Every structure is written in structure tokens, then in C-alpha cells.
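Quarterly update, task 2.4: D-xylitol-5-phosphate-bound model.
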Amino acid sequence: MARDAVKLAPSILAADFSRLGEQVAEAEQAGADRIHVDVMDGHFVPNLSMGAPIVKSLRRVTRLPLEIHMMISNPDFFLEEFVEAGSDSFLVHWEGNNNLHRTVRRIKELGKRTGVVINPATPAAVLEEILPELDQVLVMTVNPGFGHQHFLHSMLPKIERVRQMVERLDGRCEVEVDGGIDEKTAPLASAAGASVLVAGSSIFTDNSGVATAMSRLRASIAFHKSVLLA
Ligand code: DX5
Ligand code: ZN
């Protein structure tokens, strides 16, 4: 199936927060498609991260879309605050949400792009009925809560299944993956059908800088494709 080039969504969880604006600007100049903001409440996942004030600050330094990965127990409660801060899209988890359809509709009413996230133990099949409402599906390739974890290779067949579901519908929904994306795993996720790759540590902790790290990721995908086509 022919698709456009894979998009990169740098996750600022791994950024140097003392130079956040600079690093995001570097990612923008290097052609990042969007900035991925991981929001954690210490309850939905065992870690704390950032809230709407960070989004507000980022909004002033970048024109890139800001996508908010809500790893919090009550996403509905915080949506408006994040919209006011300048968010462009929301990724909300299937897990723990008894009224996912309502949350998704609310995000759409707010005029924002909508995505649903599934954790490693959650099957692709739960997306069947909600898929027509979505702009994005995010397949977690690690257990959410922390950066710099190992990519779960067992998620590759699930990425393929989600891609098939999307193609059966109308092919419009993006298939995004999050966790453990580096030069080795990016080509695998892309070959399995991912169209957007979230990457934190492989982009922001590379000593050669953000731009070089991003071109390495892109090159790894292109190389893999060329080998497959040869
Ligand atoms: C994990 C977060 C990821 C994280 C990925 O819960 O959702 O977005 O930043 O980090 P890396 O790319 O380092 O695995
Ligand atoms: Zn994330």
C-alpha cells in the first residue's frame, strides 16, 4: 500500500528542559511533523511529567502542531485548559475510560484532532467501533509512563492489524507508534504500517544533536525500504 513519507513526532519528555525552546526549534527546523507532549498524573501511570503551562510556553516558540498524550485518569477535566494553552490534538487512552466515545466527541467539539491510544496488553479489536471517529490511533510499543524503554517487538503484528483496519475503512486515520523508536526499530514499525513515529530519547539525547538524530531515523527507514524493494 502506497503511503507518504513517515512522519516524526519528537517527544519532549526526553528533552533538556533548561533548553526546551531551543530544542523544539531545532526539531522544527529539521522537519518534525509535530511535537508530542506526554502528560502524566502519577496515577494513570506511575510517573509525573508536565501540564498545560508547558504547552502555553511551547505555543510561543513553534508553529508545529502540539499533540498531547493524556496519560491521566480524567482527561475530560483538563481538555479545555490544554486547548486554551494552544494544543492541536489529543491522544486519549482506551484503558480506564468508561465513556471514551463521549471524550472523543468532546475533543471534536473543541475543534481538535482526536486519537485513541492502546496499551501493549490491549487488543487492536477494541478500536473497531470508535475508529470512524478518529484522526489518529496510537499503538504503545512500551508500557506508558517512562521514556527510554525497550521497544516491544511483539507489538508489530498489532500495528499491522491496526493498519489493516484503517485501510478497510478509508485509509485516512493515521497509525502512530510510541515507545522505544530508534534507528533499529523505526524501520520495523514503518514496515508494519505505522505512518507517524513518536521518538523521545533517540532524538533528544543523541550527542550529535536533534537534526542529526532525526535524519538518522529517516535514513534508517529509507534504507530498510530500499533493501525490501531491491
Ligand atoms: C512513554 C511516552 C513516550 C516517551 C517515549 O510513556 O508516551 O512518548 O516519551 O520515549 P522514548 O522514545 O524514549 O521511548
Ligand atoms: Zn507519548
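Highlight for this quarter: The chain has a mean pLDDT of 96.
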